[in-house]
Amino acid sequence: YMAQPPNYVVPGTEGQVCKLQKANYGLKQAPRCWYLTLHQFLVGIGFERCVKEVCLYIKRVGESMVLLTVYVDDITITGNNNDDIEKACDELKQRFEMTDLRQLKSILGIQVDVKSNIVTMSQQGYVEVLLDKFNMVDCNPVSTPEVIGQVLKPSKLNPSQVKALNLPYRELVGSLQYLVTCTRPDIANAVRNLSKHLSCYDESHWKQAKRVLRYLKG
Predict the structure, then answer these.
(1) Spatial separation of the C-alpha atoms in residues 212 and 92, rounded to whole Å
(2) What are phi and psi of 80, to 5 degrees?
(3) Alpha-carbon span 27 to 30, nearest angstrom
(4) What mean pLDDT is reported for the chain?
(5) Which of 42, 5, 7 has the alpha carbon at shortest distance from 24?
(6) What is the Cα Rg of the chain in Å?
(7) pLDDT at 24 over 80
(8) Which of 167, 211, 217 is nearest to 193 (CA)?
(9) CB within 8 Å of 152: residues ≥ 6 apart
(10) How far apart are CA 176 and CA 193, in angstroms?
(11) Structural domains present in the chain
(12) DSSP of 84-112, one letter per residue?
């Protein structure tokens, strides 16, 4: 339910409220309602949701296969038959107001380059944002994300001492984890080691985290 909008109150019903017929943008239940609406529509036009990856929908028509991925309201679609891909796009456009950006070039901060049979993904823009955010734009690049053979030792600081350092260590490690997940498996081991010390860290851990940024710059 919601209060009647200012200047739109129906005379004689000043003490009454309105009953919402659908989820408005910004309400806590809106994402859930959108997902259910989209899911039901996709199933209705022949797509099946992947059991292991619930953001992936698959539609098979004979030897043809159409793959559709969903991230909130960002949708990508591909397959091995252009006619079936276009048909699925047309059905989506008929049901929802949407913008067709054609060839995928960027999604969720990931740049996508498709050439022949090769798909290259990059997050250089995201890396540059991190370098600026953590004041590492002018840092000296290094050739490895961590020093070979170096083992990060547990910090001996107590919680109040860690807090007094005022280092955005967890924020940086979390940002690096996103890179690992998407496009940079080469920093996975370094980030894994950094993640062991999220509850208690010191300057040595912060220095190692910044080294990963130096590696990414190179």
Answers:
(1) 42
(2) -110, 10
(3) 5
(4) 91
(5) 5
(6) 24
(7) no
(8) 211
(9) 193, 194, 196, 197, 204, 205, 208
(10) 12
(11) 28-102 (3.30.310), 124-217 (no CATH)
(12) HHHHHHHHHHHHS------S--EETTEEE
What Cα–Cα distance (Å) separates residue 146 from each residue in 88, 150, 156? 46, 8, 22
Q: Which two tokens stand for residue 177?
A: 């984890």
For 184-199, how does the pLDDT look when each residue is reduced to its tens digit (9 = 90+)? Answer: 999 999 999 999 999 9
Q: How far lies 199's CA from each of 14, 92, 173, in Å?
A: 54, 46, 12
pTM: 0.70
Q: What type of residue is 212?
A: V
Angle 52-57-58 from CA coordinates, rounded to 5°: 105
Give the model confidence (pLDDT) of 73-128 as tens digits: 899 999 998 999 999 999 999 999 888 888 888 888 899 998 878 889 999 999 99
Q: Which of 215, 218, 213 is nearest to 131 (CA)?
A: 213
Structure tokens at 163: 């807090």
Contact 26, 20 (CB under 8 A): no
Q: What's the token pair of residue 83?
A: 């006619």
**What's the rounded mean pLDDT across residues 5-12?**
84
Question: How much helix, strand and coil, in percent to the nearest 5, is found in the chain?
Answer: 40, 20, 45
Alpha-carbon span 181 to 110, nearest angstrom = 11
